[in-house]
Amino acid sequence: MTGWIILGVIVLLVIGLVNWFVSTQRQLVNLDELCNNALSQIEVQLNSRWDAIMQLAQQAANYAQHESQTLIETIRARRGSEIKTADDVNDQNSAFGSVLSRLMVVAEQYPELKASNLYAQVMEAVNNFENNVRNSRMVYNDTATKMNRYVRQWPSSFIASMLNFGTRNYLKLDKEGKRDISEMPNIGAPRGPMAGGNVPSQS
């Protein structure tokens, strides 16, 4: 009789461990997928930002051809880069802030370009895309925090190590790009509809 009781306890313990293992594995997979999805959303918005300033760079080529051509080549090289990690996003944001700063310097030198409808529309589009990126960044960092807790805390860390789940790096605030956008002059030129952050069409 005692043997059956011991066997029953062992079976219950095994079932409990299996259920815990499966539950933890599913939670890790879910958090991992949420992180990947947030990165995918950010990749779309980053590419849209590159598309927006590409139009401005092409317009600027009419005023400063050499500098603008260099920027156009940089944008082409960056646009479409695959985003797999937080470091990829941070690198893209840094590059974007640098290109945007240089474009704004060109615009400052040519008042006609700075006063154009295209300039106003592109800057508004960049702002809209940045807001979308900021929202996705918050989702990613929040999910990465939960993921990292599961990966580092015992006993879930045991399952994470067994299944090769690692911690996630966090996305940094794009201070350079944010400063550039916030310091943009309030242009009084008429603006086209930019609902949803659509890239302006260049006439």
Describe the structure.
This protein has about 200 residues and is mostly helical. The protein has helices at about 1-60, 65-80, 85-110, 110-115, 115-150, 155-160, 175-180. Helix 1 runs antiparallel to helix 2 (about 65-80).
Task: Summarize it.
With 203 residues, the protein is mainly alpha-helical. It has seven helices and no strands.
Sequence-ordered SSE layout with sheet pairings:
Elements: H1 2-60, H2 65-78, H3 86-109, H4 111-114, H5 117-152, H6 156-162, H7 175-182
Mean model confidence by pLDDT: 79
Structurally, the number of domains stands at 1
Largest sheet: none
Instruction: Determine the structural class based on helices, strands and strand pairing.
Output: mainly alpha
Oligomer category: single chain
Number of helices: 7
Tell me the span between the first and last alpha carbons.
88 Å
**What general outline do the C-alpha atoms trace?**
rod-shaped
Helix content: over 70%
Q: How many distinct beta strands?
A: 0
